[in-house]
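Supplementary Text 2. Reproducibility record for the structural model of the 271-residue chain.

All settings were left at their defaults, and a single model was retained for analysis rather than an ensemble. We include the record here because the model underlies the residue-level annotations in Supplementary Table 4.
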Amino acid sequence: MNLKPNFLTVFLILFTWINASSQSVFKNDDLEISKLEDKVWVIETTDKTTMYLIEGTKKAMLIDTGTKCEKLDEVIRKITQKPIYVVITHAHGDHAGNIRYFDEIYLHPADTVLLDKTYKGKVHFVKDGDVFDLGEKKIEVSHMPAHTPGSIVLLDKQAGSCYSGDAFGSGQVWLQLRPYAPMQTYVESCKKMEKLMDEGITKIYCGHYPYVKKAYDKAYITEMRSLAEALINGTAPEAKPHTQKVSIGSANPMMVTLGEATIVYDPEHIK
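Retained model, structure tokens:
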């Protein structure tokens, strides 16, 4: 009997595994929840923002709250009944738009300037190096400013995963927003992320996952850093106007691309 798997068998096994790993477990008019990894779910909203839900043996963590999702707290309870840490990667409305459904949130204090002032719950501040123990799963905070002053990423070092919000964009990072940061601030955040990836982080799950449907690797961060350095040095590829304008952004934003990486910036606030 020939027990060696043929190509078709291997293909069917891989197809089944990939399909199962991204299986939808809940869907409504606002969002769809799919299994991303073991005890990790990706929540994709209809306006292409993203939340992530991580479950340990004792507690769970919801990363970001999307723009407008009715009864988000009840939706999350369809996936886990464990006590939940609600951690906001940054305070822009498309990532903190549903904090009203939760009595407590965690974020970096530098982003309080952007936080919805109508929020009545308790705000806990996090800092670089803080660790959330979910039970057999620990999530570490790393401060990565530039997109906003208090942008953070969440690291699951055991799984090699990073949940990055908008700190490094979703192919396109927005650095044209007030309060502006020098481009060098972004360079330093990229260098910090590269070091973390040298130490074991292999996957970056971004803040607008529906646009990319994949995790980014170190090469993406390196392209972002190289592009930011080129903007500082005046050696960047030719830029073109960025046509999407937002109320807290530059009146005349530009954008420049290198490989998979695009930076949107204000030419008057590079340094």
